[in-house]
Amino acid sequence: MTAPQIVRYGELIPCKTAFIDAHTPGSDQKENFTIIGGGVSESPDQHVHIATPHGFNIGAAGQPPRCRNSLHSHRTAEVFFVLSGRWRFFWGRWGDAGEVVLEKGDIFNIPTGIFRGFENIGEDYGMIMAILGGDDAGGGVIWAPQVIEDAKDHGLVLGENGKLYDTKKGQALPDGVAPMPLLTDEQLKAYPEPTTAEVVPGYVARYWDMVALADRAPVEVIGADGILRDRPGFEVYLVTRGSATEDRHRHDRPSVLMPVTGHWRVEWDGGADVLAPGDTMSVPADLDHAAWPSMTGEAALYQVVGTDDPAGATWRG
């Protein structure tokens, strides 16, 4: 039986040239991490820690204070939870339609089909963990037109093949590859501009509210019956000290464990290990396992399991 794979927080390999805004002032200190699956990086320098398909991708963004991720959209789900720092998420064509501030442990199932960005507004380096729907994460990133235009002034050009070319390094678009076309005014009409009041109630879950709900049993955060009702091709659960158990269980597909707080002992047939916040564990399908806090104090972790639902647009039912 295959053992779980662990990617330790301290062993994450960043890519600082992952996206088209990598040279744009205000966004040029971002670090992108691709932990499980190919992700949506546009750079050949991106390191993939675990390439095994799970039906979803796991990644992360690390940013110093006042560093911003530019406005973009995805065709499948993009779910973030805050591992460290204080983050402002904003959305809309120009990023001014609405916003929300998230703290450690908070989770945001960003609606598909809207432009979104985020910035670290804390005082220290912060990290947010990301879950992207589908094995191919929707085929890449859709950038707001101004992001592509701004990037040209700083040497980066995105080809229609989804790859970046750095003119400061003497790179140019290959023969037969045109620049990524800008969305037209007509195409931009398909991207809605929901307000904060329209987005936050159905798409944001606060950590301490979830901890209270998970006092006796794991709480379904994202799923058909979740706090945030959605079917993006995966389900997300929050497990706390009160709802953890040493009883082993299994899933018929790979699952992922990501601690937010505390240290967690994970045991499976043939082995055991301890996870800390920022670590990511991929548990193989059909492996009996259990996880529970190994030390006193606050302890919570997110569990992600794929489903048979298509990794399409945000669902409401």
TrEMBL record:
Record protein name field: Cupin domain protein
Sequence ranges assigned to domain Cupin type-2 in this UniProt record: 68-128
